[in-house]
UniProtKB/TrEMBL annotation:
Catalytic activity, reaction form: Hydrolysis of (1->3)-beta-D-glucosidic linkages in (1->3)-beta-D-glucans
Listed Gene3D superfamilies: 1.20.58.1040, Glycosidases (3.20.20.80)
EC number: 3.2.1.39
Record-annotated X8 domain positions: 370-451
Domain of life assignment: Eukaryota
Region forming the signal peptide: 1-18
Keyword tags: Disulfide bond, Glycosidase, Hydrolase, Signal
Stated family: Belongs to the glycosyl hydrolase 17 family.
Protein's UniProt keywords contain Transmembrane helix: no
PROSITE patterns the record matches: GLYCOSYL_HYDROL_F17
Species of provenance: Brassica rapa subsp. trilocularis
This protein's name: glucan endo-1,3-beta-D-glucosidase
Length: 569
């Protein structure tokens, strides 16, 4: 072989190795109403030293912001388009023309994922459409001259029927022959990847008594797992989960198919019943997985030692509009304001971090009582539908709040919703019911029967901080002055209030109440009569204050400026 030939071969290998380095990228989700602009988000991605980003659509503003950067991009065909695309080459062509051609190649789109976790769906038509849709998209790329773009799709671990020990890894029988076999054939033929979502957090959280936390966090020094069939030894749960996919693909005849970790991460917060979701664990896991995946030379896994394993960390931001348990909204490396949840960067070059992490406080199962109530900031107009759903699930969930029931208060939808949410959750929690209701509900460990009340008759002044805490407790933290009423005699120079009545929690609108009279909440709602219902009902998270102008109107003895100045704080 000539020297020139050897040199050429060496260069090709070097370029290939650089292209598929193990340096993790990041998943850029957009399910938040407070996220930075695309251009600012791209700067934040660069600040994390990420060289890859995965989108869950083909957002044109984001693709434009990524133009002329050195960040390689993965885009996604939405799940809802798959069935139609699988039947229509023209629709597939049009999707590529509209979403890829305006940006490629100056935006470095390199991967096109057809759907997200499709095979976790119960929709048989959607699952059957997956591989045909992947083929249609691949043909459209070729037809329209788009090069260097690999087609794939993402899979959750529930596509595996067995995963332990790893050598027993096998795809579910309902998809193995009908979907996975032709998919693997397609991926192998096109030299693409099997994109898999791997989260050690979930198997650990489901069985913390038998799965060691340090083993899940890459921190174990004395816990190993040996596969009896292969004698391969595992030092962390991540490798164990990856190799289950390796053996599953081998079982179908594709032992060398490359794997890409489409998502991995650890939640930095969650609900009270979600063990181990905290900043300490999230930072530990993500720092360790970055160190492992970016190692040079590559570490690989026991079944594939020394092999590069490309990946995306989930996720760029905490996303406040994701539904489901609290962890779903807390996988971000960054807060929506762009600040880091904890120190981290994705090059793998940083080995020491200056910041001391907060000690974990929920690595054991919470044993106290938990209630499910209306969330702070919940959209009141959506509560009726959620209330109807909770009450339609059987088990006499809502009997007490039905007409004629002991807790029926027809004008208090929020109260009814909190009762229904907690009652539903208590009945169906063990069978998979969640305290979510599309983000309208939240968990609380504060006993909802103990209302937050501050009686200023017990002392002469109420400070601004106490008022702010009251407003926060009832979900009015950032709202305008017109959302709250406080009966008081005067506002002091230090922004305190002098008055004889309670500040919180209720002042329902009542046309019989004169606007220039001071009235106690107890005169408007009989707490004693209603107290038996409050255990499942009104909670500190329930925003129940209504719009009623305060005493300080044109008929009062004080200028409204004082009241509004206080409330504005």
């Amino acid at each position: 072989m000539s020297v020139l030939h050897l040199l050429t071969l060496f260069l090709l290998v070097a370029v290939s190795g650089a292209k598929f380095s193990g340096r993790p990228g990041v998943n850029y989700g957009q399910l938040g109403d407070n996220l930075p602009s695309p251009s600012d988000s791209v700067k934040l991605i660069q600040s994390l030293n990420a060289k890859r980003v995965k989108l869950y659509d083909a957002n044109p503003a984001i693709l434009a912001a990524l133009n002329a950067t050195d960040i390689t991009v993965s885009v996604m065909v939405p799940n809802e388009l798959l069935v139609n695309i699988s039947k229509s080459s023209s629709l597939s062509d049009e999707w590529i023309r509209s979403n890829i051609l305006p940006f490629h190649p100056t935006t470095k789109i390199r991967y096109l994922l057809v759907g997200n976790e499709i095979l976790s769906s119960t929709d048989s038509e959607l699952k059957s459409a997956l591989v045909p849709a992947m083929r249609k998209i691949q043909r459209s790329l070729k037809k329209l001259g788009v090069k260097k773009v690999k087609v794939g799709t993402t899979l959750a671990v529930d596509v595996l029927e067995t995963s332990f020990p790893p050598s027993s890894g096998e795809f579910r029988s309902d998809i193995s022959g009908s979907v996975m076999k032709p998919m693997l054939q397609f991926l192998n033929r096109t030299k693409s990847f099997l994109f898999v979502d791997v989260y050690p957090y979930f198997p650990w959280a489901q069985d913390p008594a038998h799965v060691d936390l340090a083993y899940a966090l890459f921190e174990s020094t004395n816990v190993t797992v040996t596969d009896p069939a292969t004698n391969l030894t595992y030092h962390n749960l991540f490798d164990q989960m990856i190799d289950a996919f390796v053996f599953a693909t081998s079982r179908l005849g594709y032992p060398d198919l490359r794997i890409w970790v489409a998502e991995t991460g650890w939640p930095n917060n969650g609900d009270y019943d979600q063990i181990g979701a905290n900043v300490y664990n999230a930072a530990t896991y993500n720092r360790n997985v970055v160190k492992k995946l970016s190692a040079v030379p590559p570490v690989g896994t026991p079944a594939r030692p020394g092999k590069v394993l490309p990946s995306f960390i989930f996720a760029l931001f905490n996303e406040n509009q994701k539904t489901g348990p609290g962890t779903e909204r807390h996988f971000g490396l960054l807060h929506p304001n762009g600040s880091r949840v904890y120190e981290i960067e994705l090059s793998g070059e940083t080995t020491e971090f200056k910041e001391k992490l907060p000690a974990p406080e929920n690595n054991e199962v919470y044993k106290g009582k938990i209630w499910c109530v209306v969330a702070k900031g919940a959209n009141w107009t959506q509560l009726g539908e959620a209330l109807s759903y909770a009450c339609s699930q059987g088990n006499n969930t809502c009997d007490p709040i039905k007409s004629g029931g002991p807790c029926h208060k027809p004008d208090l939808t929020v109260l009814h919703a909190s009762y229904a949410f907690s009652s539903y959750w208590a009945s169906f929690r063990k069978t998979g019911g969640t305290c979510s209701f599309n983000g309208l509900a939240t968990q609380t460990i504060k006993d909802p029967s103990k209302l937050w009340t501050l009686r200023v008759s017990e002392r002469d002044t109420v400070t601004t901080n106490e008022l702010r805490q009251c407003r926060e407790d009832i979900g009015l933290g950032g709202k305008t002055a017109h959302d709250v009423i406080i009966g008081a005699h005067a506002v002091m120079a230090n922004d305190g209030v002098i008055g004889p009545v309670g500040l919180c929690p209720l002042y329902p609108p009542n046309p019989e109440v004169l606007l220039n009279e001071l009235r106690s909440p107890s005169e408007l709602l009989d707490f004693g009569e209603f107290s038996d219902c409050l255990d499942f009902g009104l909670g500190s998270g329930s925003p129940l204050l209504q719009v009623v102008n305060p005493t300080f109107d044109s008929r009062g003895g004080h200028n409204p400026h004082y009241m509004y100045r206080l409330i504005a704080h």
